[in-house]
Amino acid sequence: MDSMYSFLRFIKISRVLMRYRLDSLVLSTPLLKSFKPLVYLIPWHYFPVKKYTRGQRIRLALEELGPIFIKFGQTLSTRRDLIPKDIGDELAKLQNNCPAFDPIKAKKIIEQSLGESTENLFKRFDIKPLASASIAQIHTALTNDDNEVVIKVVRPDINKVIQHDIKLMYTLAMLFNKHQLSKKLRPIEVVAEFENIILNELDMRIEANNCLKIGKNFKNSSLLYIPKIYPNLCHKNILTIERIHGIPVNDIEQLKANNIDMKQLAEEGVIIFFTQVFKHNFFHADMHPGNIFVNTNGQYMGVDFGIMGTLTKTDKDFLADIFIAFFNQDYKKVAQIYIDSGWISSTTNIFSFETAVQRICEPMFEKPLGEISFGQVLLELIQEAKNFDITIQPQLLLLDKTLLNIEGLGRQLYPQLNLWTTAKPFLENLVKEKYSIKHTFEKIKDQTPQLLKDIPELPSMTINAIKQLNQIKDIGHLYIQQTNIIVNQLKNNENKHTSAILAGSMTILSGILAVNTFWLPSLFSSIIALIFWFQSI
Questions:
Q1: In total, how many domains does the chain have?
Q2: Are 478 and 440 within one domain?
Q3: pLDDT digit string (tens) for 44-64?
Q4: Last residue of some domain: 414, 449, 484?
Q5: Do 342 and 218 reside in the same domain of the chain?
Q6: Would residue 330 count as lying in a domain?
Q7: Torsional class of 360: left (φ above 0), alpha (ψ -120 to 50), beta (otherwise)
Q8: Does the residue 148 lie in any domain?
Q9: Which terminus of the chain has fewer CB atoms gathered within 10 Å of its CB, N or C?
Q10: Residue 122 is assigned to a structural domain of this protein
Q11: What range defines the domain where residue 469 resides?
Q12: Which of 165, 286, 315, 400 is catalytic?
């Protein structure tokens, strides 16, 4: 049965590829190149589609192939480092509106998952769906406590559909992997990334936890309102969340009609993003206009928390350093930051990479700061790094996709938005924190266990080195004088090394005590460290 389904699905995919003239791309792979003349035997070849661009043809084909391929196209649109701009722009237009499934089935899924009838669970349950997307369908309801909610119900049997379609995607990816473009597009990597994202989105408990976490981060905030989650009405395939009423953020006319300050709204959108990234280290990675609303007081309201991003401390430092170097017009520093990151391949030509960075950055420096796209700069640097076989962390790509969305949205709301003015305080504070005394002591504290483990070994290592040098004296009279000098120097240094080790140990101890606000013992440890340090000079 599965093999028959896969075969029929493959036939449908082939038909759609042919219809939108994407078959020639598949048949241009080395494996199928000899079959390319078959295109002339296909009826569709003689009935050309309207004059669509290649990006439009890909978008239309994905829309015809259904929900999973639409979702795949949306995911692919976030990988601007891998796909050409015209295709990325078209894929970003993919709409997640899909035909609704039988609402009676939705009602049954809710009741089976939550263990009670909808009549008992809710004061009112609206059988007509509010919306339907690739993964889930939305119904509205009223709780027994008179709270308006929306219920997200995962499509029935969607797991099987996804598994079959992903298998076919891998087949197509492996086929396309033989095309020369695959080195840049990396089709198998993209399908694997999509598989991971969509499987996470199937579990509503993950989204519920994400919503609770970001809600806690913005608790009592005037910047962003996060809807309330109803945990007792949630399940693996059911999410029940407070229903919000707001103006879609891209409805400019309606926002202006409500006297919303557009400049403030644009700037606060940027502040929300940088707060999530640099303060909370937990950011909404799907902040497109369909997921953002504004209430009549001008406060943002967010929904759909299936895809969230986090950065390591190294990632955050890298990001802050890159932007600060860029706005200081120091392209050599930009290249050096990449080099220092450790992502450079052994085959990378560093001089050529610096030249490429200069080529990207110099034209940007000629623009006023208000006209520079943060996201575009980062994207071009990421794309160039890929060309030099420099591995970029996936979370930075996710962040850049979100940054591009926020930037585009901000300038749609207020075209004069200067992102640098808003972002600068966050980046400067991050750099100050990075080089602060407190951060240094905390770093020492983290490394203390390993240092304390290694310190006892150092004297014995020194003694062993001296013994070995003493043995070398027997090699011959020609080296006696030089060896004696070295041995005497090592013996002389042994005491100094011991003092230096003790000074270092006491300094570490002083730092740990200071971090934990034990000021008097910290001062005493510092004095002892100073004494040992003088002895080591």
A1: 4
A2: no
A3: 555 555 577 888 888 888 888
A4: 449
A5: no
A6: yes
A7: alpha
A8: yes
A9: N
A10: yes
A11: 460-535
A12: 286
Per DSSP, what are the bridge partners of residue 143?
122
Give whichever of 6-10, 157-161, 492-496 has the largest mean pLDDT. Answer: 157-161
- Show which of 97, 131, 153 is a domain's final residue: 97
Name the one residue in this structure whose structure tokens are 């049954």. 108
In order of 53, 56, 60, the CA distances from 50 in angstroms are: 9, 10, 12
- Output the pTM of the full model: 0.68
253 found inside a domain: no
pLDDT in tens, 112-128: 999 999 999 999 999 99
Do residues 74 and 91 make contact, with C-beta atoms less than 8 angstroms apart?
yes
119: left (phi over 0), alpha (psi -120 to 50) or beta: alpha
Let me know how long the chain is.
Answer: 537
- Collapsing DSSP states into helix, strand and coil, what is residue 303? coil
Confidence grade of residue 417 (pLDDT, cut at 50, 70, 90)? confident
3 state SS of 332:
helix
Residue recorded with tokens 């009676």: 104
Q: Please identify which residue in the block is written with the tokens 């420099």.
A: 390
Helix H or strand E segment including 242: strand 238-242
DSSP class of residue 290? G
Residue found by looking up tokens 């039988």 in the block? 102
Question: Is residue 453 over pLDDT 70?
Answer: no
- Catalytic annotation present for 446: no
